[in-house]
Amino acid sequence: xxxxxxxxDSWAHRTPAGVKLLSVALASLLLFQVASLWIFLPCLIxxxxxxxxxxxxxxxxxxxxxxxxxxxxxxxxxxxxxxxLMEGVAVVLRLVVMFLAANFVSVTTRxxxxxxxxxxxxxxxxxxxxxxxxxxxxxxxxxxxxxxxMQVFSMLREAWQARTxxxxxxxxxxxxxxxxxxxxxxxxxxxxxxxxxxxxxx
Amino acid sequence: xxxxxxxxVAFYAALIAAxxxxxxxxxxxxxxVPITAQTLGVMLAGVMLGxxxxxxxxxxxxxxxxxxxxxxxxxxxxxxxxMTPSVGFLIxxxxxxxxxxxxxxxxxxxxxxxxxAISAAIGGIxxxxxxxxxxxxxxxxxSLPKAAIASVIYIPGDLVKVVLAALITQxxxxxxxxxxxxRKSGGVNDKIFD
Lengths: 202, 194
Fold this sequence. Notes:
The structure holds two protein chains of two kinds. Chain A has ten helices and no strands. Chain A has helices spanning about 10-15, 15-30, 35-50, 55-60, 65-80, 85-110, 110-120, 135-165, 175-195, 195-200. Chain B has a single domain (about 5-185), classed as Arp2/3 complex 21 kDa subunit ARPC3 (Orthogonal Bundle). Helices cover about 70% and strands about 0% of the residues of chain B. Chain B has eight helices and two strands; from the N terminus they run H-E-E-H-H-H-H-H-H-H. At the A-B interface, helix 2, helix 5, helix 6, helix 7 and helix 8 of A face helix 1, helix 3, helix 6 and helix 7 of B. Chain A: This is Biotin transport system permease protein. Chain A: It is found in: Membrane. Chain A: Its main location: membrane. Chain A: Belongs to the CbiQ family.
């Protein structure tokens, strides 16, 4: 399944998803109460140590930070311009720590286990007459649709490229929308023919 | 919610995800700020599905991202993204889709191209930034005006997406009129088929 999950069997993988989610939520709550560099720095070291405990592949996950660097740099500059440089550095450190800690949960938990862990959150849906299974079915459908759409789009793009020579165009968006919408209608029919979401077991 | 609605919701959640996987385009005229297609999906969900289903589609998408699917633009995903300064924008997405769908429904006697453009602009830009900018301010410890400056570079790209969303809606309305669910009167078809 598509996920940022990193395969492994470390202590972190064996910890139940619910425990990991709760501890990250708690840690983030606490981190928002403080604003001192001298607290964030040890936290950063601790979080990096968490990744290091997964081995080399774990440390390689730190590259995820790259996507954030530009924004964090802008933040520091904005703070520097308004004369609160140290505060800016502290804020950036806090963001990095919180991001890495939360990401650690995703890296060490399979998507299925995560879904199972948050399932109780959907029980209230049954009070209004919905099945608490519907979100899980929605997740499964979405995960199946997304790659299919990419496929539809690349087929259209190949056809476009063969005819015009140019790689891609916004003109492909409309046929893409129509084709993939038809597909979703077929899925809806198929689901209904099989007894609908209420008919699915487990 | 009928099964058909659930499939539609999942479909648009997947569309937002798929658009996030489209590589960002940097437009030199706009200072080379990368434009991702993701918010186009948010606009389309609201404009096509109407307020409730549109918002649910975005929520389902965000739920998947939170579970660890790398569906945010740039292949980002996991609980970590809700800890970044852009969290306000993520919170604004479902509200924006709701507002876009609501306006689309309220303007049902207007020309579809104009109605879709207005809905996408207000839902997809005004509402999303109304949540996004305070989000940046809180998460980054900046004042509101500074946070707005940090976010404003993405507005030109968002305007391009408003135009695209309107054009796509118009094309779909011609080719597959039943797919513009926000415009269906009273959901008569749903009642017959479900």
